[in-house]
Amino acid sequence: MRGFDLSLVALAAAALCWLSSALRLNVNMEAFLVGLAFPSEGRVSRLLVSKTNFVLSSFVLPLYVAHVCLSLRQTTDDIEAAGLTRDDGFRAYVMELPFPWWKVFFVTVMGTLGKLTGCAAAGLLRSLGILEALALGMLLNVKGYFHLYCAQAAFDAGIITDKSFMAIIFMVALNVAVTPMVGMGIASWARRSVQWRLMGLQHHDPSTELRLVVGLHGPQDVPTLSYIMEALRWGGGAGGGGELAVYAVDMVQMTDQTAAAIVKGGGFDGVTVVDEEVSEMRKLIGEALDAYQVECGDGAKVKVRRLLALSSFPDMHSDMCICAEDAMAALVLLPFHKAQRADGSMEPGHHGFRVVNQKVLQLAPCSVGVVVDRGLGGTHASVVSTSSQSQQSQTQQTQTAAVVVVFIGGADDREALTLASLMSKHPGVRLTALRVVQNATAQARARARTSLFESKGSRPGGGGGMMGAPASSALGQEEAQMEVDDKFFAEFYRKHVAGSKQPGAAVAAIGYLEKHVADGAELVAVLRGMQADYRLFIVGRGRDRSSVLTEGLDEWAECLELGPVGDILASSDFSTTASVLIVQQYDAKKHYKVIDEEFMPL
After folding, report:
1. Which residues touch 533 (CB under 8 Å, ≥6 apart)?
2. Which domains, from first to last, does the chain contain?
C-alpha cells in the first residue's frame, strides 16, 4: 500500500471521527461511520481488515479485558448496608469483595442454554445435524467481548450492581476456559462416529445430501466435472433429484512467485493469491461454476463452496484428504493429469498432478474417481437443458449421452456400478451395463490356476505349512469376492435393468450387454469395438480384482494408478471422443489395524 493511499485513509478516518465528536454522537458511532465509509471488497479493505484484526486481537482486546477486570468499582450494596450515602462510601477492588457464586452459576447456565437452544433450533430447521448444531452453539458461546461491553455499559448506567457485573465477568471467563474443551469433545465424538461409517456411494443414502469434493486444475475441467455432478445429483431424491453439496478445490502449486503474491484476506486466517495468472484462473473457474448453478435452475438443491489448495505437489494430497474428511464427502473427483491435444492424442501432462492423484487414491477417506476428459464437457449444456426441460415435461426431443459401465468384478467395479446407477436416473443419460464374464477357455485356465495353488498348499515339505496358508486364504477370498459380485450384479439387474423396462418406469430403460472373453486381449478388443458408440466409460480401478481376464495387462500399463482396464481406456491409442471415469471404492481396512478382515468393526 502506497504512503499516499495510507495518508488518505488516515485522513478520512480522522475526519469522520471529528464529525462524530462535533455532532456530539456516541463514541461507537465513530467506528460505525469509519467502517461504513470503506467498501467491503478490494485490496485496501482486505489489508485494513487483516491489519486491524491483528491489532485488535493481539493488543486492544486483552488490554480492554484487563482494564475491565482490574478497574475500581464503588460497592453500592455495601454502602447501603452500612447506612452511608454514596459520597461517604469507600472504593475497593471488586475482586476483594465477598461474592455469591450462585449468581455465576445461574448466569452461566442461562446464557449457555440460551445460545445452545437457539443454535440447535436454527440448525435443525436448516437440516443441520444435532452434533454440528451443538458444536456451532458452543463455538459461538466463546465470543465474550460483547458481553463485557454490555455488562460495563449496564453497570455505568446503574442497571446492575457490582456483584452482577462480576458474575457476568466470571461467566465469560468460564465459557472461554470450558467451551473449547467441550467443543473438541463434540468434534472428536462426531469424527469417531464418521469413521465407523463406510464413506462411499455404495453405502450412501440417496435420500440424504450427496457431498462431493471436486479438484480443479483450471477452468477447462469444469464442464466435464459439472456434467458428472449434475448426473449424480439426479440419483438422489425423487423427480427432479436430490440435494448436492460440492466442495470445489482449486489446486494451485506453491511456487516462489505464488508465495510472494499471498496476502491475508477474507478474515483473520484467510489468504488470497494476488498473482495475475492464478487470479484469472480462479475467476474463470468461479464464472463457470456460477453458470452451472444458474443453468441447473434449482439453486436451493445445488450448493457450491469454493476452496483453495495452495501447496507443493508432494503435500497437496493432504489438503484434498482433509477437505474430504471434514466435509464427510462420499466421493472425490480428480482430473487426469494428462489433457487431450487438438489431434486427439494425450499430452504427457504434469507429473506433479499425477503424484497428487496417486496419493489421494492411496489415502483418501472416501471413494475416489479420476476423470479422463475427451470432450465430454461439450454435452454438458445439452444435459443441463435436458434437466430443465424434464422439470417442465418437455423432454421429447432432448439429446442424450451414451454411457457404459464395465463390470468385471471386485469392490471397485461394484462402486462404479453404483455410480452408474445414480447417473442413469438423469433423463439426459442413456446407460448400458456391460458385464464381462469368462468363457470356457478362461474358466479352464482359472481351474488350472486354482489346482496349482491347492497343490502347492497341500504339498509336504517346502510347499506346505507357511506357504500353504496364504494360498488357501487367497483362494477363499477370491471365491467370496465372486459370490458377492454375483449377488450385487443380480440385485442391480433386478432393480435397474429389469425394473426400467417395466411399463410406467420413472427412468429410461438401461441396456445390458454380456461378453464372454478368454483373456486380456479379447477384453481389449471388446472395449475397442465399443469406443465409437459411447461418450463415457465408467470402470473400476480393480485393486482387489484377481481375474484371469486382466492377467498380464499390468505389464504394459503406463499409469498403474488407473488399474489395468482404466489405463487401456486412458491411453492415446484408444478413442478420441470417449471420456473415462475410473472409480475406486473406499477401503475401510486401511484405517483399522486388524490382523484379519473378520476382526473389522464394520
Report:
1. 402, 404
2. 97-192 (no CATH), 201-382+400-444+475-598 (3.40.50.12370)
SS (H, E, C) 242-269: CCEEEEEEEEEECCHHHHHCEEECCCCC
Note the Cα 442 to chain centre separation in Å. 42
In a 10 Å sphere around its CB, with 0-12 CB exposed, 13-18 middle and 19+ buried, how is residue 238 labelled? exposed
- C-alpha 50/C-alpha 35 separation (Å) is 14
Determine the Cα–Cα distance for residues 514 and 510; give it in Å rounded to an integer: 13
Beta strands in 99-258 (DSSP E): 210-216, 244-253
Phi/psi zone of residue 42: left (φ > 0), alpha (ψ -120 to 50 degrees), beta? left
Edge-to-edge strands, sheet with 511-517:
302-311, 244-253, 210-216, 331-335, 367-372, 579-584, 536-540, 401-407, 429-438, 511-517
Closest CA to 172 of 68, 32, 325, 288: 68
Instruction: Return averaged pLDDT per consecutive 10 residues of the chain, 602 residues in all.
Output: 68 78 72 71 67 74 73 51 49 56 77 81 79 74 70 78 76 73 68 60 82 92 90 71 86 85 59 81 90 72 87 91 88 92 82 93 91 76 44 44 91 92 88 89 76 62 50 63 88 82 61 88 90 92 79 81 90 88 84 51 46
Tell me which residue has cell 484462473.
281
* Grid cell of 140 as nine digits: 459461538
Residue with cell 516462489: 256
CA neighbor of 558 nearest in space, from 297, 312, 313, 372: 372
Tell me what pLDDT residue 395 has.
37
Smallest Cα–Cα separation from 400: which of 218, 234, 521? 234
Give the list of residues 6+ apart from residue 365 with CB closer than 8 angstroms, or none.
Answer: 199, 321, 324, 325, 586, 591
Placement of cell 496349482 in the chain: 452
According to DSSP, the β-strands at 367-372 and 401-407 are unpaired
Dihedrals phi, psi of 451, to nearest 5 degrees: -65, -35
385-441 per-position pLDDT tens digit = 444 444 443 333 346 889 999 999 888 999 999 999 999 888 888 999 999 988 888
**H or E stretch at 539:** strand 536-540
Closest CA to 390 of 301, 506, 222, 243: 506
The three three-digit cell numbers of residue 55, written as one number: 491489532
Burial of 95 (0-12, 13-18, 19+ CB in 10 A): exposed
Cα separation, 190 vs 71, in Å, equals 42
Read off the DSSP letter of residue 346: B
What are the residues facing 537 on neighbouring strands?
Answer: 404, 580
- What is the DSSP code string of 22-58? HTT--HHHHHHHHHHHS-SSSHHHHHHHHHHHHHIII
Structure confidence by residue, pLDDT tens digits, 540-592: 998 877 777 887 777 778 888 998 899 999 988 888 889 999 999 988 776 55
**pLDDT score, position 126:** 77
DSSP 8-state symbol, 345: P
pLDDT confidence of residue 290:
87
